[in-house]
Amino acid sequence: MVAWASRMRESATPPPLAENVSGIAKYNIVFLGSPIWGMALPAPVRTFLSTHDLSGKTLVPFFTYGCCGTGSAPETITKLAPRARILEPFSLKCDQERDTLTSVTAWLRSARAQL
Ligand SMILES: Cc1cc2nc3c(=O)[nH]c(=O)nc-3n(C[C@H](O)[C@H](O)[C@H](O)COP(=O)(O)O)c2cc1C
Fold this sequence. Notes:
Blueprint: H1 2-10, E1 29-35, H2 43-51, E2 58-65, H3 73-80, E3 85-86, E4 90-93, H4 96-113
Parallel strand pairs: 1-2, 2-3, 2-4
The chain binds flavin mononucleotide.
């Protein structure tokens, strides 16, 4: 997967999307959610930004990542949607919820053992 995503990232031809958002003109606010691949915005998301006119719209980006933050993704969005108003991105480590659950469960088990 990582090698495939890297090839896609380096390719001069952006990958086509299986579907486009028809009638994007009628939306004023667009939430754009994406994983981070190779410390960057995945190539299909770049295709989306390049093929849909987001001028004058408010773009609300949010990301999930495995370990290392959002990399160059916010900057790429700014480059590819130069005429959109882009809000501060929200990002979350993808297994944050699982980590929290594991920690809380371990704490409660330990507390119960001490009762
Ligand atoms: C091809 C590929 C490349 C990835 N590269 C990164 C990376 O550079 N940094 C990072 O923190 N996470 C990386 N990840 C982890 C994804 O960001 C993580 O799987 C995703 O945010 C969770 O969404 P998903 O459930 O749709 O995979 C990568 C995942 C894939 C599949």
